[in-house]
Each structure stands twice: as structure tokens, then as C-alpha cells.
């Protein structure tokens, strides 16, 4: 088995080093004679030192000029040579326990892909409330969070990867398509019970009112809001 760990990154020079260090540590803790791996950082048109930091850390660097997270994830996957893909965010930290659970699921031969429960390292009360709601939906609907998605490479290719037209919610589109593909193959889509931790910085860079505005716009016009980077400004306006 070869695992490709793909990290989309847009102006992530502050948090990418810790992310890459966590990946190296987790891989070391989960070392297996039959497991090969590669780390791919997809530089999504950054204007800072993101690409240089990735190169100096020994990661393979891909490039996506269009500033859309779905396209960045897909560009990273296009550069991958593994038979399993794991997508994590550049502001997250991979733990050995979560990687071990993901590898066990992959090696079981029973699943096409999946996700994990998630958490944030620093969150206000309203952020914690949103996380409780997301955790319920993730388990009930088997939706993977974008900060931790894994799947077979052949399944990813068969469904066309992350929907490239989406500026947000691309992980839900991929989850849906992988579940459909897996059912035809007799394979599951799983949400691991381990927890993948990301930075809670966005809860502090954006006010509750701004988050509410995004949610209201998504409720008012879901199709447009998922395709318009201007609405999903917490992903695209460059605050870091």
C-alpha cells in the first residue's frame, strides 16, 4: 500500500511547518514494512513562503493557479502516486491515533473512503456549538469534513475527484459520490471515531456576525453560495 497525504495550502507559511511536522511524526509512529508514503503540498497560488517551506521540509509541491480549494485538492491528487489518498488542511495536525485508524480502515478491504470526527484547538462557545451540530450530521449522513478525507485513488478518479466548480462544500460532494461508487462495489464509507484537530483561528479572525452572514446567505441561495468564493470569504479573503 502507498499512501499519498495531500495538503492544499494558500498563504499558510505560519501553520504549515507544524502541520508537516505532525505528518512526519504520525507516519513514523505508524511505520509498517509494507507501507510507503509521500507528502504533497499543493500551493494554491500563494504569495508568501508556502511553497519554499514545503520544499525545504521534503514535500512534493504541486501548483494550482485558480484559487479554489476544490481545484487545489484535485491538483494535489493529480500529482499523487499512491493507491490511497488522505487530504488534510494546512492548519491541521495529524495524530498517530487518527492515522492508525485510517490505515486500519484502508487495509480492511471493506471501505472506499471516509472521514474523521474533527475538533478545533481554540474555539469560542458558539464555535463549540457549531462543532456539535457538525459532528451529529457527519455521523448521521456520513459526511467527511474537508480537513480530513481519505479514499482509494481508483474511487477518487472514478467519481471525478472533488467537484471543481464548488468554492465550498466540495467535501460533501465527494462524500456523496464516493458513497454511491462504494455501494456498487460493496464497500463502505466510514467516519472514524478518532479526532482530527485543526486551528480555531477563523473563529477569532471573523466575528460571529460574519459567520452568521455566511450561513444566512447559504440558506438563502445554497447553489450560488457554494460556487461563489466571495460568499465563502472565510476561505478566500486571505485573513491568516
Report on this structure.
45% of the residues lie in helices and 22% in strands. The protein is of the alpha/beta class and 240 residues long. Strands 3-2-1-4-7-6-8-5 form an 8-stranded mixed beta sheet, sandwiched between helices. Helix 1 packs across helix 4. The chain is globular and about 50 Å long. 40% of the residues are buried. The mean pLDDT is 93.
Give start-end ranges of low-pLDDT stretches: none
Q: What is the CA-atom radius of gyration, in angstroms? A: 17 Å
Number of alpha- plus pi-helical segments: 11
- Classify the beta-strand content into a percent band: 15-25%
Given the C-alpha coordinates, what overall shape results?
Answer: globular
Query: Can you list the strand order of the major beta sheet?
Result: 3-2-1-4-7-6-8-5
User: From the helix content, strand content and strand pairing, which structural class follows?
Assistant: alpha/beta
Give me the strand/helix succession: EHEHEHEEHEHEHHEHHHH
Mean pLDDT, as a whole number?
A: 93
Q: How is the biggest beta sheet arranged?
A: 8 strands, mixed
Distance between the termini: 36 Å
Helix content percent band: 40-55%
In total, the number of strands is: 8
Provide the fold topology:
Blueprint: E1 2-9, H1 16-29, E2 36-43, H2 50-56, E3 60-63, H3 69-78, E4 84-88, E5 92-93, H4 96-107, E6 111-120, H5 125-141, E7 148-152, H6 153-158, H7 170-185, E8 188-198, H8 202-205, H9 208-220, H10 222-227, H11 233-236
Parallel strand pairs: 1-2, 1-4, 2-3, 6-8
Antiparallel strand pairs: 4-7, 5-8, 6-7
Helix pairs in contact: 1-4
Amino acid at each position: 500500500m502507498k499512501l499519498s497525504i495531500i495538503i492544499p495550502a494558500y498563504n499558510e507559511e505560519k501553520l504549515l511547518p507544524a502541520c508537516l511536522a505532525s505528518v512526519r511524526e504520525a507516519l513514523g509512529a505508524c511505520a509498517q514494512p509494507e507501507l510507503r508514503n509521500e507528502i504533497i503540498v499543493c500551493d494554491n497560488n500563494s504569495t508568501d513562503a508556502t511553497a519554499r517551506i514545503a520544499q525545504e521540509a521534503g514535500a512534493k509541491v504541486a501548483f494550482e493557479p485558480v484559487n479554489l480549494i476544490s481545484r487545489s485538492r484535485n491538483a494535489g491528487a493529480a500529482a499523487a502516486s499512491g493507491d490511497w489518498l488522505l487530504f488534510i488542511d494546512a492548519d491541521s495536525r495529524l495524530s498517530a491515533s487518527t492515522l492508525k485508524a485510517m490505515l486500519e480502515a484502508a487495509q480492511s478491504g471493506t471501505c472506499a473512503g471516509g472521514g474523521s470526527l474533527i475538533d478545533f484547538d481554540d474555539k469560542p462557545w458558539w464555535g463549540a456549538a457549531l462543532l456539535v451540530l457538525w459532528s451529529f450530521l457527519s455521523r448521521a449522513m456520513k459526511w467527511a469534513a474537508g480537513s480530513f478525507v481519505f479514499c482509494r485513488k481508483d474511487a477518487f478518479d472514478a467519481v471525478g475527484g472533488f467537484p471543481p466548480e464548488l468554492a465550498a462544500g466540495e467535501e460533501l460532494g465527494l462524500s456523496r459520490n464516493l458513497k454511491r461508487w462504494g455501494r456498487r462495489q460493496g464497500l463502505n464509507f466510514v467516519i472514524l471515531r478518532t479526532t482530527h484537530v485543526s486551528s480555531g483561528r477563523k473563529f477569532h479572525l471573523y466575528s460571529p456576525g460574519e459567520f452568521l452572514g455566511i450561513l444566512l446567505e447559504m440558506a438563502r441561495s445554497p447553489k450560488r453560495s457554494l460556487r461563489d468564493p466571495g460568499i465563502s470569504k472565510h476561505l478566500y479573503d486571505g485573513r491568516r
